[in-house]
Amino acid sequence: MTTRRDFLIGAGAGLVTLGLGRVQASSHPVSREVAEDGGQYRLQGPFVVSTWSHGVPANAAAWEILDSAGSALDAVETGVRVPEGDPDIISVGYGGRPDRDGHVTLDACIMDHEGNAGSVAFLEGIKHPISVARLVMEKTPHVMLVGAGAQRFAVDNGFEVENLLTPAAEKEWRCWLEKASYDPWPDPADPNAAHDTIGMLAVDTAGNMCGACTTSGLPFKMHGRVGDSPIIGAAMFVDNEVGGACATGLGEEVMKTLGSFLIVELMRQGLSPAEACHEAIARIVRRNADWKEVQVGYLAADKQGRCAAFSILPGFQFAVTDREGTRLLDARSWAHPEAAAGG
Ligand code: SD4
Predict the structure, then answer these.
(1) Which of 51, 166, 197, 257 is catalytic?
(2) Over the stretch 111-120, which tens digit does the pLDDT of each residue have?
(3) pTM above 0.85, yes or no
(4) What domains can you pick out in the chain, each with its CATH number?
């Protein structure tokens, strides 16, 4: 049987590691904790949570808004714009790694507390796709715009078309071209190397939850490939009565299981965020005999301020911020259920 993995590897000249470096946010003081309650954390009052260590500076920007009684919608948009605009973050926005043809193509989505949603996919040349997604939500009768149409909509609304391919990303792409093999599965030596999408959930002082997700997608993906990140219910979903969830990792697996929607629905049925994230990961693991070669991480929070993250492989981190400050936390994983990785 030819598996999808065989096909994709066969599409290239041989197997190489894509090797997307993890982002360090070392300039921001954070504490590292291991949860006592099954990997579940409790947050107080308004809060913001987001994926990976670049969530730390993103949360800081979002927190400024929450702390001055701003809306969760403004908070998540402002928060994820931080990695979008940072050229050193090579998996989101400006500076993101290009596709196999050298194009930086961006995916993003946003959702408000009333269940409104906006998204853009396969968008080129616009540094802040999350802000375009918000405008799709607020100014059009639609949920999603893609490609040239999304770019035209952005330009019509005052966005500038810029070259998002930084010299560093171009160098890596040219290096990749030497072998041009395509393997979206993780390098066993560093399973998180290709995964650094930011997903963010925030609750404001009014008690409303909103969410956002933005990415440049898998590095050196096929031109035209769109992952889970702009798909409402896959990479992000919020129901203001229940809570929200967001995803990072191999988007194809997230899309096939509609993970974020699943997590929110499971929480609606009474599962805790930790239990719901665990079940969403279980759905992926059960259908993949080679699950050790797949990385997906989920982050969820409910309206009571319970928050948890869970991933297939170790190494997934998430940042949480409330009045107590910011903590960078290690998610538990299917591969190592007992302990948070590195905790
Ligand atoms: C995608 N889910 O395009 C994204 C990639 C990712 O962390 O999450 N990286 O499939």
Answers:
(1) 197
(2) 999 999 999 9
(3) yes
(4) 44-333 (3.60.20.30)
